[in-house]
Design goal:
By secondary structure, this protein is an alpha/beta fold. Helix 1 runs antiparallel to helix 9 and helix 3 runs parallel beside helix 4. The radius of gyration is 21 Å and the shape is globular. The strands form four sheets. A seven-stranded mixed sheet has the order 1-11-10-7-6-2-3. The chain has a three-stranded antiparallel sheet with strand order 12-13-14. It has two domains: 238 residues, 3-Layer(aba) Sandwich (Aspartate Aminotransferase, domain 2), CATH 3.40.640.10; 125 residues, Aspartate Aminotransferase, domain 1 (Alpha-Beta Complex). It contains 13 helices and 14 strands. The structure holds pyridoxal-5'-phosphate. The site of pyridoxal-5'-phosphate has 14 residues, from helix 3 and helix 4.
Length: 383
Amino acid sequence: MSADRKIAIALPVTGEEEWAALKDPLESGWLTQGPKVAAFEKTFAARHDVAHALATTSCTTALHLALATLGIGPGDEVIVPAFTWVSTANVVLYCGATPVFADVDPATFNLDVEDALRRVTSRTKAVIPVHLFGLCADIDALRTALPDHVRIVEDAACAAGAAYKGRPAGGLGDFACFSFHPRKSITTGEGGMLTTNDPALAEKAEKLRNHGASVSEEVRHNGPRPYLLPDFNLLGFNYRMTDLQGAVGLVQLGKLDDFIAARARAAAAYRDALSGLNWLRCPDEPMDGQHAWQAFVTYVDPDGAPLARNDIMERLEARGIATRPGTHAVHMLGYYRERFGLNPDDYPGARDCDRHSMAIPLHNRMTNDDYAYVIDNLLGLQT
Ligand SMILES: Cc1ncc(COP(=O)(O)O)c(C=O)c1O
């Protein structure tokens, strides 16, 4: 049976204001990183209570930029959770360093801090805790137990607007990296943001983002000496965001708190309505923080569920309800399996999350009626 109704797993909310914001850069002709990106960065930094914010082309490039700025290279190890989007680990390889996987706790989907600490060696240069689906990882437990020289880079791809013990994501480690991919709560199409409280790291990252140039395009272009090209003393990249994206990002950022509030209400309604399904574990709101609700990812208990997870997903798909696995276990992906000789059972927590996590629709274009329809269909599986 195919349903008339279609509920997407995620949908961005963009409209007239985003259209209007594009007018300025399109008319001025300044399309690459410029005043709109600068305004977006400033507002983003203020919202996340962090001193420096640098817009990038994606969260992946922000993560690469963070590791490159920290000087991570061949011979170094970086600890990453085994259940995360593949790019958290890929960026370590981009630097010629070795990703060392640590397991995750299926109760939160986040890094198992004790397992991560067991994997620290004299070569460990950094840990990338991921605030998966918008829930902050336990950064204090990590920071307290890690040797001082080991840096923390927050993978905050899903965590714009999240908070940990009252402190916003973005300034909890040495660097943080955000994503504005359309599956995140605010979007610039593709796009990312690198944040830090360290002025020296920010200065170096800014140069590396722009090919390693000693002065920015904007300063050079508007400067009084037309004959001057910048010097390039570092091997950098072009990870600059366009001003078109910056303009859209600024509008989206203005809506972030309303988006999160609406998602939190929907998450509470899901939790309430589904609490009777003892085979479906719903994510909790943290006691002392703010979940950013990038996604509502459940865990299907294989022992109690009326059907296997994949059958549940197919059943819901047939009724017009999109679902997805939360994300993947990177150690089970072909490239990592083959290159590092990894087996699914090496990280049982990540393996189980890969097999049993199930994101159900949660986004700012859903109506109360849509939520009720998803709930009815989940409750209906029981019978
Ligand atoms: C945890 C995590 N890290 C990194 C990324 C990469 O973000 P981007 O697509 O902006 O490169 C994602 C995107 O889904 C993610 O979920």
